[in-house]
Amino acid sequence: MVELKQTSPCAGLLPVTLGDVTMSELTPGQMTCLTAFGDPADLSAALERAHGMALPGPNRSSGKQGARCIWFGRGDVLLIGPAPDAALGAHAAVVDLSDAWATVSLKGAGAVDVLARLVPLDLREGHFKRGHTARSQVMHMQASVTRLASDEFMIMVFRSMAGTLVHDMKQAMAAVASRR
Amino acid sequence: MRVAGKGVIDRSKAVSFSFDGRRYSGFAGDTVASALLANGVSLMGRSFKYHRPRGVLSAGSEEPNALITTGTGAGQEPNVRATVQEIYEGLVTRSQNAWPSLDFDVMAVNDLAAPFLGAGFYYKTFMWPKRFWEAVYEPVIRKAAGLGALSGQNNPDTYERAYAFCDLLVIGAGPAGLMAALTAARAGADVILADEDSLMGGRLNAESGAVGHQSGAVWAAGIVAQLSAMDNVRLMSRTTVTGAYDGGMYGALERVNQHTGIRGAGAPLEAFWRISARHSILAAGALERPIAFRNNDRPGIMTAGAVRAYLNRWGVAPGKRVAVFGNNDDAHRTARDLAAAGVHVVALIDSRPDAVIEGATFPVFKGAQVCNSGGRKALESITIRTDSGEEALQVDCLAMSGGWNPTVHLTCHMNGRPSWREDIQAFVPTPGSIPDMTVAGACNGVFSTRACLSDGVEAARTALGALGRKAPAEMALPEAEDTPYALSPLWAVAGAGRAWLDFQNDVSVKDIKQAAAENFSSVEHMKRYTTQGMATDQGKNSNVAALAILADATGRGIPQTGTTTFRPPYAPVAIAAMGAGAQGHGFAPERHTTSHKRSVAMGAPMIEAGLWYRPSYFPKAGETTWQQSCDREVGYVRKAVGICDVSTLGKIDIQGPDAARLLDFVYTNMFSTLPVGRVRYGVMLREDGTVMDDGTTARLGAEHFVMTTTTAAAGNVMRHLEFVCQALHPEWEVSCTSVTEQWAQFAVAGPMARALLNGMLDKPIDNESWPFMACGDVQLGGVAGRLFRISFSGEHAYEIAVPSRYGAAAFDALLGRAEQMGGGAYGMEALNVLRIEKGFITHAEIEGRATAFDIGMARMISAKKDCIGKTMAARPGLVDALRPQLVGLKPVEPGGRLTAGAHLFEREAPAIRENSKGHVSSVCYSPELGMMIGLGFFAAGPARHAEVIRLVDHLRKVETEVEICHPVFLDPQGERARG
In the predicted model, is pLDDT for residue B770 greater than 70? Predict the structure, then answer.
């Protein structure tokens, strides 16, 4: 028998605060990639029944903190929080990605300015509202960016790139902090 | 010297800085140029080719002469324009291109050799002997001519890249830009107003005229204050928009800390912005052009507008006795402003006999021209030519104006050509040159202040219309100067001697005429032959005059002669700014496995595999070479048990009713027949029939597979599958999801592999429950994992996968147990030896040229089904028996050396290119066999086992006789893996 201890992707690297922006690791629970087979409306209904949220459209998310679903690329959504209900399997490919992504929160008045250094998205509040999400890049890494609040974003990159995420993010945070 | 009561700088704040080792004092708001002029320093640089003494010509970013180096040590910055660099406490600057000093430059002898150094002299003079160009001439010329230099050390400064988005980008914050921004902002548009100056206002800060009841500078400050209070406006001063690109994208360089001493702690020196704008307004103003006359380059001769700027903005009179020379009414203002400020105006010289000059309190010469200047390191006199002859005037400053050129550059960045306007003798932007850009103000050939204010409002109305926004009903326009702009062309004053056009590259009127005489009459040819406009200022002051002279010399009109192409960037941009963040660890993402920390702690050197970092080997005390470590690690696997992190291999979860169909289509061999709980090796081809990748795929359920790819090709394979699913078979119900990062996977290989695993698994396995190529779910201390019985070493081996959060712990646990059993961790070197001994291929073999036939897997292309690449792989040329095919290689003499990359020849054939019959792809020292072995490709190789050929590595000078053999060196029956 063996006892295996868990290590989080950003263990020992976060949190970091520079200026008025704080980056911290999120532990949002189980993350499951759902890819609909057949009519996506069936999956949406199943999702609604099991987890109380509809299937989000492109660049959108549904649900709320604790049980959220974000669009995750063409045909894919990511269910974040609850363990996926077995009923979902009838309408979608269900793939556990709980350990595949490093998930961080970037919070503070300057968060949007920090991301402007790394992410080529129009993050103006009127254009990228709370609940909006996008697959994009953070510096050189492919990433998922979701606005959780006016001053908070959820950023996801491949787990193996957690160190680079923290490196690149800290650099941008320092640059933004130096201007304030 | 400073003029009392003039200027908008803060005279309460003294700032000291140094130039060429001497300390000077200026005020907050000064540029190096204004502060040096205030200190009576007019000599600021030496020219590029002839090392002629030069002073400041302009007051802006177009400056060709006053180039300085700022800073010291590793971060020194060359070719900074003294007219742009603001002074700050402790700023260190120095002159360039002069030795031993700016004041006494021995290279000035070049100026005496000028008759031999005219247009095209490189091409004529250094033709012979041919090899002397690179060896002698070029190094000498490069040393003698030139600009400032970088330090040659790593740049310690931080730079920044950033993105910005807006509805409207207004470029330039002069009267037109300010009104445009205000109008659009009041309509609610998201506005970015970018201006390259530290102080917004453009010419309003440089002129004495009033706007409304205020001075121009005060009015501009008031508008800026209004704008900065609006949430939908972003003001970006010290920001030069450097390029216009497709899709409303603009490049811009912001000098974030160039005007402060703040360095380090992440503070950027400069930021390179990419601004995405739905619409833009170019209000970049105009640049004044000099007049070419003999010796028009002496320190103290500058443009008339620059003299006004130094006087009105910085409170500096650039001379005690100033003359003004122009061909237009605008120049008159300089004389009037100077006289009003109490500066002695020696003469106003207007080349037009019919010029109307009102209220002159100084001598006026109409229909006269300045034809020469005197002095050496500073202007001492000018010679004027009138109808009655030539006359010398004692002056220490000459303000000249040949008219104004609208700053059309950005409108040409997408291959637009400007249009000639005869009335203002200048090029203006051709409408529509840049999609969604409106041009306003002086940039549009509108020169009076009042007209610029109004044009700014109009441009904003146009922009708001395009943005679908309602413009404010009325925008009140203040009263302002509204005099018409009148000039008559004067490009060069006739006469002998050198009259300078391009000050930065030392191009004279003579050079242009010489080019025309030698039939370099196209403007593009003239440019390259003379280097006109090819310096860092891109000929901003001189291009139009140069092509006017070319037009004259070739008997064509100016519009027929045309312009050269303006390209981005508008002003120099440091590469460091464009590549910001990509130095050091920012160069590329570093992908670390969950065992990374432990591996590093064990002293393992890392090698890069794609973006992944993988341990090369794990050194132990007493080992002095990697080979010793590698041999020991190979021994773990062959004799006990070895642990290797193989998480970097691509893992793709494939699900759906059509999953098996997809696999049958992309793999050459059949996967729909694979039973659940089993793994199969597969090869996939590109459309052209060459091998794309190989790997194993496990069937976890009827409609559920996990494919593994090689580390390097994981991304390519994923893209390939996506292409098949989206483009070739969109009707299939199948999903492909990368799970590479989800699972930490470890190879457990060696005769004791099962014993080790059984110490960790909640439920032990045996050969019956888990035979070779079996797979399934397992539990380790309650953690759900997956176990695959596959072998890349030929030994009894498994790969065990756990969710990545348990990866570090699993590696520790596996390693601890392996070490107790006489085994341990093995790295990439050992992995390579193990697979070569077994003849397993990697991308060293399937490098993009090899076919399935070449690697001996032609029979794996199933005859029962179609697959990608099948048809193309059957082309006769790809299945020719004489093609180089995979073989094993071993030296005839046991100590013989094999090298990867060496070529293979018949024993007796000379080792020349034409005789090469193959190459060596992989080699290693096999501890098991006690000699080097290799894999390679040899023509008809499989038919020639046991024959001796010759390996020749011309690069490393290795020649070895080798025997062709079967590529599987160990356990050809595969009994160990099945045991």
Answer: yes
Q: Are B493 and B291 in contact (CB under 8 A)?
A: yes
Does the domain at residues A16-27+99-179 carry the CATH identifier 3.30.1360.120?
yes
Decide: B616 and B606 in contact? Cβ < 8 Å. yes
Q: In the numeric block, which tokens belong to residue B475?
A: 């925008």
Residue after which a domain boundary falls, among B693, B717, B738? B738
Find residues 129-158 of chain A whose CB sits inside 8 Å of chain B: 139-141, 158
- Measured between alpha carbons, how far is B765 from B936 in angstroms, rounded to an integer? 39
Q: Does A16 touch chain B (CB under 8 A)?
A: no
pLDDT digits (tens, 9 = 90+) for B438-461: 999 999 999 999 999 999 999 999
For residue B762, what is the nearest residue in chain A, using CA coordinates?
A: A1
Domain-by-domain residue ranges, chain A? 16-27+99-179, 30-96
For residue B854, give every residue at least 6 positions away whose Cβ sits within 8 Å of its Cβ, in sequence order, or none.
B691, B883, B884, B885, B886, B937
Q: How many distinct structural domains can be found in chain B?
A: 7
CATH number, domain A30-96:
3.30.70
With contact defined as beta carbons under 8 Å apart, do B599 and B618 qualify?
yes
Angle at B184 between CA B182 and CA B185, to 5 degrees: 65
How far out from the chain centre does Cα B940 lie? 48
Domain end among B128, B151, B174: B151
| Chain B residues lying within 8 Å of A29, measured CB to CB | none
pTM above 0.80, yes or no: yes
Output the pLDDT for position B125: 65
Q: Whose CA is closest to B571, among B699, B431, B379, B410?
A: B410
CA of B553, closest CA in chain A: separation in Å?
A: 50
Minimum CA–CA partner of A170 in chain B:
B266
Residues B386, B461, single domain; the answer is: no
Do the Cβ atoms of A172 and B586 come within 8 Å? no
> ipTM of this complex > 0.95?
yes
Looking at the fold, whether B277 and B297 belong to one and the same domain comes out as no
Look at B586 and A122 and tell me if their CB atoms are within 8 Å: no
Residues of A in contact with B737 (CB under 8 A): 33, 35, 76, 93, 95, 97
Tell me the CA end-to-end span of chain A in Å, nearest whole number.
55
B658 and B616 both lie in a single domain: no
Under 8 Å CB pairs connecting chains A and B tally to 156
What's the CA angle centered on B194, arms B190 and B196, to 5 degrees? 175
- CATH code, domain carrying B323: 3.50.50.60
- Same domain as B145, residue B44: yes
From the candidates B274, B275, B735, B779, which should be mutated to test the interface with A, based on the most A CB atoms within 10 A?
Answer: B735
B613 and B634 share one domain: yes
d(CA B537, CA B62): 6
Which residues from chain A sit within 8 angstroms of residue B252, using beta carbons?
A: none
- In chain A, residues 75-94 whose CB comes closer than 8 Å to chain B: 75-76, 92-94
Q: What are the strands, taking DSSP E only, across chain A? A: 16-18, 21-25, 30-36, 61-64, 67-71, 76-81, 92-96, 101-107, 133-138, 141-149, 152-158
Alpha helical stretches, state H, B300-396: 304-312, 330-340
Bridge partner residues of B233 (DSSP) = B191
d(CA B733, nearest CA chain A) in Å: 6
Quote the domain boundaries for residue B703: 650-738
Residues A2, B808: C-beta atoms closer than 8 Å: no
- CATH classification of the domain holding B529: 1.10.10
3-state secondary structure of A43: helix
A109 touches chain B (CB under 8 A): no
Is A177 part of the contact surface with chain B (CB cutoff 8 Å)? yes
Name the residue among B708, B812, B779, B793 with its Cα closest to residue B749: B793
Per residue in B92-132, pLDDT (tens digit) is 999 998 877 888 887 777 787 777 777 776 666 666 677 77
